[in-house]
Amino acid sequence: MAIINPLQPFRHHPSLYIGLAFSIAIGLAASRAVPPVSAVLIGWCAGIILYIALVLIHFGRANLDSIRARARELESGKWIILLVTSTAALASLAAIVMEVGDAKGTAHAAGSAALGATTVFCSWSFVHVIFAQHYAHSYWLEGKGIDFPGCKQPDYWEFLYFAFTIGMTAQVSDVTTQGPAIRRAVLAHSLLSFVFNTAILALGVNLGAGLLGN
């Protein structure tokens, strides 16, 4: 009987490992000067910023052949990656609530609010970058599923546009989805985007009320 390695889906994601290591290092360094929750959020933001930078560099260097090869490498664990990264991003929202709540009415309220807003933006961007890669790899691996007007061979940037459009508007704009698999992914992405957009609105209301209260 074959032994299933739970880390198997992650072995082709060096950018995630680099971002995680950087996140831990920055978080530990920050913990010497700020409370634990603040240190976690600072490390989280630092790791995401580095990860997205590495991914965008990869996007700029990739061609259609490398995208297809990458899709084959990541086929087995693509849904696990989506689940784990999305769960981590949602967990960051809980940490933001703790951060802003603990600092409310203190001298650190403004700094905590800024950290909270930065974390929401980083987590929001992280989710869409992850989904952009998922869409790209699914497209080239499973036989299309997304129709980009005027573009027969879309690269990563087309899928990044698609993912961020869903994230900002909860719709697919001028792009057409085809097939149940891609629609399920878009549904999950839209629901997750709704949670983040609601969190952004709630954070804004909370910060506004706090400023008026002060």
TrEMBL record:
Top-level taxonomic group: Bacteria
Q: Which residue windows are transmembrane per the record?
A: 16-34, 40-59, 79-98, 110-131, 191-212
Q: Which InterPro entries match?
A: DUF1345
Pfam families xrefs: DUF1345
Name the keywords, alphabetized: Membrane, Transmembrane, Transmembrane helix
Q: What is this protein called?
A: Putative membrane protein
